[in-house]
Amino acid sequence: FVSFSSHLPSHRPTIQPRRQTTHYQTKLEAATHSQSTPPNTHQQTPNMVQMTPGDQAMVKVIPGNDQCCDCGMKNPQWASVSFGTVFCLDCSGVHRSLGVHISFVRSIAMDSWTPQQLQIMKLGGNKKCKDYLASKGIG
User: Fold this and answer.
1) How is the beta sheet containing 78-80 ordered, strand by strand?
2) Which of 7, 51, 125, 126 is spaced 20 to 30 A from 132 at the CA atom?
3) What's the whole-model pTM score?
4) HSE on the CB side for 39, CA within 13 Å?
């Protein structure tokens, strides 16, 4: 009996699709990245916590966040961490259908958030995103 498994590589390299980001997303992510972990060290999973009422209030008073960034409905309860924007329940379904690689959707009140995600939401806002897209001829 001859085993061919010893001649096969122990692992296969995987090809990851290139993540497309906007300059707006890159600036938000750069503002929230802390010092990187050296290679080959164990990095702990960040603590996930629900937004405190204070965090929720802070996100809601950011210019433009009093209404859905897509349809204008008042008092949005959902957010795209990818864009730092908030939107209504109906539009959250549209964002979810885009896939998490484009728009990572979280409930402001019900989901847990990492400290980095909270920071992105505090630095973002519907008005900032719309202004940025308009400056690029989009929107």
Assistant:
1) 85-87, 78-80, 105-107
2) 51
3) 0.68
4) 0
